[in-house]
Design a protein that fits this description.
With 198 residues, the chain is α/β, with parallel strands linked by helices. The chain is built from six helices and six strands, in the order βαββαββαβααα. Strands 2-3-1-4-6-5 form a six-stranded mixed beta sheet, with helices on both faces. A hairpin with a 3-residue loop joins strand 2 and strand 3. The radius of gyration is 16 Å and the shape is globular.
Length: 198
């Protein structure tokens, strides 16, 4: 079973925060595919034939606690997380497997439960404002113009999620590589072409 985790904080006051981009991505994926998250105590979830998608309700810094509850209920052997990244410009996307927490408290919590080398990642940039402390910045709402920029990259992330569900992470990486080449040297409709992974 594959587990796809969208990171964010529960509650209406956080709905449009930059830090809730993982939730926003999974919500848009579900809405466009006419699926609905079931309500749970520690996480909201969608269960499909070979995959579970969750939005932890344990708050960002304790996201790993929700994953522990998933592992107590289902046999999971693959993990993919979708989350905001302050180190990437707005609407930039990067996909990779492994790595550290990069100062992201949600990832830090997941890595207490999931070995770093097993965690597959879709990182979506939210940019950074040097005049605002990082904590305050990620817990503030997206500006309207930022939401417009994000529309295309959220649709792209949804396509990668579909590929992961239907095939595997290698298929996602192949499609990501093709996409990178297709937009190399150009910026199109809100998606900023990515740099090569190190």
């Amino acid at each position: 079973m594959k587990l796809i985790i969208g990171l964010g904080n529960p509650g209406k006051e956080y709905d449009n925060n930059r830090h809730n981009l993982g939730f926003i991505c999974l919500d848009q994926w579900a809405q466009s595919r006419e699926k609905k998250f079931a309500k749970g105590a520690d996480f909201d979830y969608i269960v499909m034939e070979n995959v579970i998608l969750i939005k932890p309700k344990t708050f960002m810094n304790n996201s790993g606690e929700a994953v522990k509850q998933v592992l107590a209920k289902w046999k999971v052997n693959e993990f993919l997380v979708v989350y905001d990244d302050i180190e990437l410009p707005i609407a930039k996307i990067r996909i990779r497997q492994g790595g550290g927490d990069g100062g992201h408290n949600g990832i830090k919590s997941l890595l207490k439960v999931i070995p770093p080398e097993e965690l597959k990642r879709i990182r979506i940039g939210v940019g950074r404002n040097k005049a605002i402390a990082p904590r305050d910045y990620v817990l503030s709402d997206f500006l309207p113009e930022e939401k417009v920029l994000l529309n295309s990259v959220l649709a792209l992330a949804g396509k990668f999620i579909d590929i992961y569900i239907k095939y595997d992470f290698n298929a996602v990486l192949n499609e990501y590589s093709i996409w990178k080449k297709s937009c190399s040297g150009a910026e199109s409709s809100g998606i900023i072409s990515p740099k090569e992974e190190s």
